[in-house]
């Protein structure tokens, strides 16, 4: 079985190869990712995370265009020309030109609808980085030429920060002037930190307008975005390779749970050692054949029918718990309709106030924690904030709502502190549960269903992800975990026992995330300190049984040299792409320390666990 797992891993490794083409001129550097452009810098200063051109159908799916013609011209500028065809039965043809000149970027698209074309959105998208932008001043010019002085928001807004504008102007680091002009349609910005993305997103059109909308066959399409940049002064870039610990604040290691889909559990030591079982039951369907006989603490997620009286619905839940041997530790009551997402300014369904459910739950589940929040993403929690009668707040996390690329997923840990700061602000510092935390999605609040990932590729809104059993998934999970550590974050649920998000195969053989969960549970009762992240390297100091350990992850696909003062790195275990297949050995352990001759070097996606001698 170990051989079979290894072969499956090697198959997926080849399947998942990503290639970016790096280009530069005098001022700009960029990574070309097929039709997209990533990590755009101007004079070594990141100004954009991505430039894309997207055509959405009426279900918010992106059309995959045919490339009819491609040209590139490189002299003092960088010019890319794409002739594209979108759609199958409904057809749009465009010519898109992306031009990086000396001090500007010009994006232009000219096209024609060959048929009637239903769409939710068409046009250019700009992803604005968080670094140097969060909290900065910005001047927003509206469609009527009215200028508004604003700021890039620090806390995450549930709705769009800026609506229907034609120009944005701002200064970064008190030195770089940025002016973005939009023609052809008014644009809008949303705070993509809601979904875990480390960016603000500028896109064409407005969610305040009706959608989908119809473009008539024979009509033309035209859109231009011009980005001008001016450097006011020379900037120095300090070294980013010194990782420093924050000794001022310590944290107790949080509790780790596991998601179960059935009360029938395997006879496995790790499964027995989880602090609680996260168990979702849909009480709007026939659940009478569901029984439970476990003394383990249960975190019950109860989906209820919003059309029925809340007391009747919760009595149904109470009767189920009373008829079964359930050690109810925590309960999250969620009207099933809230598995769907609703725009803040849009029409919401008529649902009893969540406070009403929580108030009743406080009475009938008096020995359990009442959990507020959403089964789905922070987005939905931010749009439906709790008010009272709760003990804990919960949301789940997935990185593939908008961008399933390695580049996009590995950026998401940067967003976590902003999510938790926003949550702390509106939940009055209530304790937090995060989970399930996985690359593949458990629910799709934004469409009819999850996308079935039959081809096992990187895919947004997908029910599964082929990186789940890769080193990639372990590194990303640890980076999210480290970034999530704060005073309020007390409970984490990463994975399921079985299935797309599982830690065991059907025959109960161990998958890679089994070892990661086992490792984290072995650190229970430890005291931890956080390092300030540097250059996508995240770290913890762990004090366990009077011994000191250090845990670091390189959440990037580049090699890193990191200086960490006052730590003896020589005795360490490191897991990287070169030795990852060791995880399939029966004796695998993160505690297999060895001497290392180059301890401060990090391989791509490397995990280091260090014993302080």
Walkthrough of the structure:
The protein is built from 9 helices and 35 strands. The protein is an alpha+beta fold and 613 residues long. The strands form 5 sheets. It has a 16-stranded antiparallel β-sheet that branches. Strands 20-21-22-23-24-25-26-27 form an 8-stranded parallel barrel, surrounded by 4 helices. Strands 19-28-29-30-35-32-33 form a 7-stranded antiparallel β-sheet, with helices on one face. Residues 1-15 have low confidence and may be disordered.
Quaternary arrangement of the chains shown? Answer: single chain
The helix count comes to: 9
Secondary structure class reads alpha+beta
Largest sheet: 16 strands, antiparallel
Number of strands: 35
Mean pLDDT: 92
Portion of residues within helices:
10-25%
Report, as a whole number of angstroms, the end-to-end distance: 37 Å
Radius of gyration: 25 Å
Shape: globular
Instruction: Give unreliable regions as ranges.
Output: 1-15
Instruction: Estimate what percentage of residues fall within beta strands.
Output: 35-45%
């Amino acid at each position: 079985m170990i051989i079979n797992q290894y072969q499956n891993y090697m198959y997926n490794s080849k399947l998942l190869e990503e290639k970016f083409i790096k280009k530069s001129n005098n001022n700009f550097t960029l990574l070309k990712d097929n039709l997209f452009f990533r990590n755009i810098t101007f004079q070594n200063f990141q100004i954009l995370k991505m430039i894309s051109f997207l055509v959405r159908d009426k279900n918010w799916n992106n059309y995959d265009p045919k490339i009819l013609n491609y040209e590139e011209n490189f002299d003092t500028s960088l010019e890319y020309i794409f002739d594209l065809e979108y759609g199958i039965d409904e057809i749009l043809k465009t010519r898109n030109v992306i031009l990086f000149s000396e001090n500007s970027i010009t994006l232009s698209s000219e096209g024609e609808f060959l048929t009637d074309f239903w769409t939710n959105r068409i046009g250019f998208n700009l992803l604005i980085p968080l670094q140097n932008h969060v909290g900065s001043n910005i001047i927003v010019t509206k469609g009527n030429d009215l200028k508004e002085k604003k700021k890039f928001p620090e806390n995450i807004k549930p709705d769009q920060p800026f609506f229907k504008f034609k120009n944005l102007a701002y200064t970064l680091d008190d030195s770089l002037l940025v002016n973005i002009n939009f023609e052809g349609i008014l644009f809008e910005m949303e705070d993509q930190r809601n979904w875990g993305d480390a960016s603000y997103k500028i896109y064409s059109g407005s969610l305040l307008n009706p959608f989908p909308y119809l473009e008539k066959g024979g009509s033309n399409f035209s859109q231009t975005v011009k980005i001008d940049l001016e450097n006011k002064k020379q900037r120095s870039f300090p070294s980013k390779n010194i990782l420093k610990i924050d000794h001022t604040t310590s944290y107790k290691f949080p509790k780790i749970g596991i998601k179960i889909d059935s009360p029938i559990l395997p006879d496995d030591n790790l499964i027995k050692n989880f602090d609680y079982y996260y168990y979702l039951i849909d009480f709007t369907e026939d659940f009478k054949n569901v029984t439970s006989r476990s003394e383990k603490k249960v975190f019950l997620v109860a989906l209820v029918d919003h059309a029925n009286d809340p007391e009747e619905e919760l009595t149904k839940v109470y009767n189920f718990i009373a008829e079964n041997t359930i050690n109810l530790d925590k309960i999250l009551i969620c009207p099933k309709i809230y598995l769907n997402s609703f725009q803040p300014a849009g029409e919401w369904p008529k649902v009893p106030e969540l406070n009403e459910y929580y108030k009743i739950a406080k009475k009938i589940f008096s020995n359990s924690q009442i959990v507020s929040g959403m089964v789905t993403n922070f987005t939905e929690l931010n749009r439906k904030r709790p008010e009272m009668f709760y003990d804990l707040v919960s949301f789940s996390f997935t990185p593939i709502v908008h961008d399933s690329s390695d580049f996009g997923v590995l950026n998401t840990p940067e967003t976590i502190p902003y999510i938790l700061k926003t949550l702390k602000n509106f939940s009055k510092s209530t304790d937090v549960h995060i989970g399930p935390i996985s690359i593949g999605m458990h629910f799709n609040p934004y469409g009819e269903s999850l996308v079935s990932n039959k081809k096992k590729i990187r895919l947004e809104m997908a029910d599964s992800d082929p990186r789940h059993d890769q080193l990639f998934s372990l590194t990303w999970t640890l980076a999210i975990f480290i970034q999530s550590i704060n005073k309020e974050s007390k409970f984490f649920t990463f994975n399921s026992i079985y299935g797309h998000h599982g830690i065991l195969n059907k025959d109960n053989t161990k998958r890679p995330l089994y070892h990661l969960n086992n490792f984290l549970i072995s650190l229970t009762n430890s005291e931890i300190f956080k390092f300030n992240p540097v250059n996508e390297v995240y770290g913890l100091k762990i004090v366990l049984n009077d011994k000191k350990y250090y845990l670091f992850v390189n959440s990037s696909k580049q090699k890193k040299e990191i200086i960490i003062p006052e730590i003896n790195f020589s005795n360490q275990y490191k897991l990287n792409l070169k030795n990852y297949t060791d995880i399939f050995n029966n004796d695998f352990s993160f505690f297999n320390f060895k001497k290392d001759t180059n301890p401060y070097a990090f391989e791509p996606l490397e995990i280091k666990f260090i014993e302080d001698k």
